[in-house]
């Protein structure tokens, strides 16, 4: 048996957290890089606590596409925040669940006694996704750089063609899966086909997402958001992807986005491409006592699952089921759920899977169905369809917000989960620490 397994496992608490507003990408480079967003989210979080910054054992941050000047963006952000150079920082990447992976990595390090206090989070500036030269252009540039005389340079210049300037749009490739030859929207169409999910069902969930986010904004239920300014003095204090006029009628007018002829998935029932960042401070009981820290919730369990990339959106059903089994939970033992809305249809597919005897038996290895998750306890303040899905940050955001929900409702348990491009799912079980 390893030393870590023999070591007394520590309780791990979510002390506090914060996030930026989620800003919809609007066809041009946004005002903040991933590093900018992360710094804006973390600075007020750190300022409201008294412990010295060198108390952190490490900083862990999820990010899929850091800026060209932000290699190991976690380290860049930590230093910009004034966290001492002696505190190590590292960046994790698990596609859509990168922000959840940072929490899981921190949880494990504290749980097994390797750390006591960790800043964990995620950031993504999807509007800054790189546009690259194609390989033909790269080879041409290499030849031009090797040319030494004017004659050699002119000869290379004569080979330059318009095709050399065809761009490689990294975001489009990032939202596709080469192993199955499908983009993420097409995998959502597969789920709709598997579970006979209608366009009306997808659009209804999308309308509800916008209505719930509007209610949360109007009633001050998103207190974890930290306002921020860009370098031009513009002010940002809310998730700006909300469309208050969203209705079944307006969504019905949208054409399918991925399967133009037969598809059901549209821009209106899919998550928005968005920039944002989120953080949580995780602490052991020792750190809580030493620095007199408040506690929001404890992390009780995590789970990762793999599945067919062609139906990657089913990941939450696969990741949450083992946690339910390990703890012998029934549906009613979980008070609130956050399932990231990458697509309305993938959330609906996960819900239907847990009620489907064949799916539970043949895909989840269960003897019986898990049951129905009530919509009144799922994504109660909106989700990715209305807020957006900055891939590196969403995993942290949903765990943080779930902890906030448990606090304000005085509920006991919550489960947060995401689907992951490439055919995976992740889930985190938390419990109110009050």
Give a verbal description of the structure.
The protein has 434 residues and is an alpha+beta fold. It has a domain at 177-221 and 300-432: 3-Layer(aba) Sandwich (Peroxisomal Thiolase, Chain A, domain 1). 36% of the residues lie in helices and 19% in strands. The chain contains 16 helices and 16 strands. The chain has helices spanning 3-6, 34-47, 73-80, 98-111, 135-146, 150-157, 170-174, 184-194, 199-218, 248-252, 285-291, 315-326, 344-355, 357-362, 384-387, 394-409; strands at residues 12-19, 23-24, 58-62, 89-92, 117-125, 131-132, 168-169, 176-177, 182-183, 228-229, 235-236, 274-284, 297-306, 336-339, 413-420, 424-432. The strands form four sheets. Strands 1, 2, 3, 4, 5, 12, 13, 14, 15 and 16 form a ten-stranded mixed β-sheet that branches. Strands 6-7 form a two-stranded antiparallel sheet. The chain has a two-stranded antiparallel ribbon with strand order 8-9. Helix 2 crosses helix 3 (73-80) and helix 4 (98-111) packs across helix 16.
What spatial form do the alpha-carbon principal axes imply? globular
**CATH structural fold name of one domain:** Peroxisomal Thiolase, Chain A, domain 1
Question: Which structural class should the secondary elements be placed in?
Answer: alpha+beta
CATH class descriptor of one domain: Alpha Beta
**How much strand?**
15-25%
Low-confidence stretches: none
Architecture per CATH nomenclature, i.e. the level-2 architecture of one domain: 3-Layer(aba) Sandwich
Radius of gyration computed on alpha carbons:
23 Å
Number of strands: 16
Average pLDDT, all residues: 94
Major sheet summary line: 10 strands, mixed
Tally of DSSP helical segments: 16
First and last CA, distance: 35 Å
According to CATH, the homologous superfamily of one domain is Thiolase/Chalcone synthase
Give the % helix. 25-40%
Q: Give the oligomeric state.
A: single chain
